[in-house]
Amino acid sequence: MTDKLSQIRRQMPVLEQFAFLNTGSCGPLPEPAAQAVARVTEQEYLRGRADVARFRDVLIDREAVRVRLGRLFNAPPESFALTHHTTDGMNIVTLGFNWQPGDEAATTTIEHEAGLYPLYLVQTRYGVKINFADVGLGEDPLPAIEAALTPRTRLLSISHVSYSSGARFPLEDVIALAHRRGVPVLVDAAQSAGVFPIDLTALEVDYFALPAQKWLCGPDGVGALYVRPDRVDDLWPTFVSYGSFASQDWRGGYTLSPGAARYETGMLYPATVSGWLASLDWLLDTVGPDWAYARIADLSAYTRRKLETLDGVRVLTPPNRQASLVNFLPVGWSPARMAGLVKLLGDAGYVIRSIPHAPYCVRVSCGFYNTEAEIDGLCACLADLLKRDPRTVEIPQWAIDYALPDEPVL
């Protein structure tokens, strides 16, 4: 282990307890972020929350987060709205169009609920038709995506990296394809932000929703939505708050804020904003984005190679589309028993997750702070557990409540 990696791991105490391999759900909180959250919380507890100086500090932190996001993703700070999570951003965009009956939206068959549920809502509320591009596991998605776009398509909503298969969509090609048809693109970046370099200006992406708590190692309850500057006037705010207006006359006249701040839906908890600011500074100045990107790519490739050597494992993530996630099928196991397998691995100190719907599978998601030794240990433990009869593995209560099927996946 290098000195740099050792230093980084010392600032993430949870790594002393577990091999944490589930960054795709939440990354570990680094010490600077935890300290910032604690500091703001203590100030509120001891000194109160209703003074002008505190409110000014909150606004300064919010603007500082936008500046850091602009550095990380090469975009103007004012093009970022601060949100509560990725789902917030997906809702803001999907509900912000002036939908009319007969309009259509397009998405794919391997999306997260964060993108799907807002589409379901406009389908019911406005009569919008949703066209699903059947992209399989994401091996060659462009033909299906192109077929899903019609002259009535108003929006393409798509993940940058599919959480359920691990496939990285060729976003540059997807955006170019959609733009040739005059269709704006909304991207769920939950599994890509902080994983590899992303230049939002060069991508010409229209809308890009991202969370703090995954590879950006921030607190829960905060995220961001990028709105391309020339798209701001195309999208109406569904909810408004203090930051939405540049001015108003108390008699019905108003001017919306010129940038993406007009889409912010209310006050974020100040401690989470301060915590995210601290984690972004830590990533930019201590970890180094380029080092982190290279480390994640190397570890993901290493994970795939190790899993492919195990009897009874079939890696599902397309090899030409792999990014940060490695999704695999324990052959002969049911979705319910996969949940039990994940629990047994967790009991042994290896934190991963299962996907509770098609394509039913198990997922490893490495962060820049993980080690090859942790991957080796995971695979050794997994190889031992896969020797068991799946029927002897206890189904966790959550899987029973979720009614996961107990028939082997073929």
Write a structural description:
This protein is of the alpha/beta class and 410 residues long. The chain folds into 2 domains: 3-29 and 288-401, Aspartate Aminotransferase, domain 1 (Alpha-Beta Complex), CATH 3.90.1150.10; 32-285, Aspartate Aminotransferase, domain 2 (3-Layer(aba) Sandwich). It is built from 13 helices and 15 strands. It has helices at residues 3-10, 31-47, 52-73, 86-94, 113-126, 142-148, 171-180, 200-203, 270-287, 289-308, 335-347, 372-385, 397-401, and strands at residues 19-20, 80-83, 104-108, 129-133, 153-159, 185-188, 207-211, 223-227, 245-248, 254-256, 313-315, 325-330, 350-351, 353-355, 361-365. The strands form 4 sheets. It has a 7-stranded mixed β-sheet with strand order 2-8-7-6-5-3-4, sandwiched between helices. Helix 3 runs parallel beside helix 9 and helix 10 runs parallel beside helix 12. It is globular and about 70 Å long. It starts with a helix and ends in a 9-residue tail after the last helix.
In short:
The chain has 410 residues and is of the alpha/beta class. The protein has helices spanning 3-10, 31-47, 52-73, 86-94, 113-126, 142-148, 171-180, 200-203, 270-287, 289-308, 335-347, 372-385, 397-401, and strands at residues 19-20, 80-83, 104-108, 129-133, 153-159, 185-188, 207-211, 223-227, 245-248, 254-256, 313-315, 325-330, 350-351, 353-355, 361-365.
